[in-house]
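Tutorial sheet, problem 5. The three components below are modelled jointly, 272 residues in total.
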Amino acid sequence: MPELPEVETIKRDLERVIIKKRITEIQINRKNIIKAPGLKKFKSLLLNGRCMRIFRRGKLLILEIKTADNQKYFLTIHLRMSGQLVFGRKDPCSRLSLRLSDNNYLSYKDQRALGELRLVKDWQQLNIVKSMGPEPLDKKFSLPEFTRRLQERKSKIKPLLLDQTFIAGIGNIYAAEALFYSGISPLRRAVTLSKKEIQLLYKNIKKVLQKAIQYRGSSFSDYRDGRGRRGNFAQHFSVYGRAGRACFRCRGKINRVVLGGRGTYFCAKCQK
DNA sequence: CGGGGCTCCTGTGCGC
DNA sequence: TGCGCACAGGAGCCCC
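Model answer (structure tokens):
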């Protein structure tokens, strides 16, 4: 479900409402989403702890936890396809529920239960973090390096954009949108992109992610923000999910193919 | 390295 | 109505 803009929106919502509140009650309704440590330890460390800070790396949401006995831990949350993190009243559908000292709840919901939560001492030592590519909205994400790294890859550009070790945070929607705005076919080999095309792609990745954050993310079906509300960017999709409909630029038909097992939308006329 | 298939889950929608 | 299949904002693993 959520890609960088959705996780960023949740982060911004939650940091206004849960910081420094004490966790007074923990209810785990689906054990296997907790990947580390064991359930007992997970619970005892969190109980009476407080979230001091929230940040994001790629699609990973990270809560810095100060435990009751003043240790520093990090609760890492990967929402995968259908995870939601919602602040408010108690939610009977939650997989994990944290009651806070103001009597509100932080609910982790996840219809498909593919999400993963971990409570760790050092989040940077997680494999998913160690192998993660650059943050596309970070100043350190530079065009020369993006260019160099694209030019050494023979794979198709679209699956490459979904590869979190190549670049962090982009998923199926924003890969499709960025390629559309850049006029680049998802089937193109990365190595064949011209300097000009790479520059366009670089700009459009940033642009589409920023725009989506402005609109509080995309709710195609499951996504909800930190208050349980839908995002507004789905109304602004140019290609994603528009198979068979008219391309906004040339009025031609939007195609759908499967690449790396993922539905891939593009306009064969506008995207070469 | 690249790509395909399968897996983890649950739910919905479609064609027959 | 029922059944099976395809598909869904993700990603790890195995195999060729």
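Marking note: Residues 1-3, 6, 59, 78-82, 112, 114-115, 128, 162, 164, 171-174, 217-223, 240, 262-263 of chain A lie near DNA strand C (CB under 10 Å from a C1'). Full credit if you identified this.
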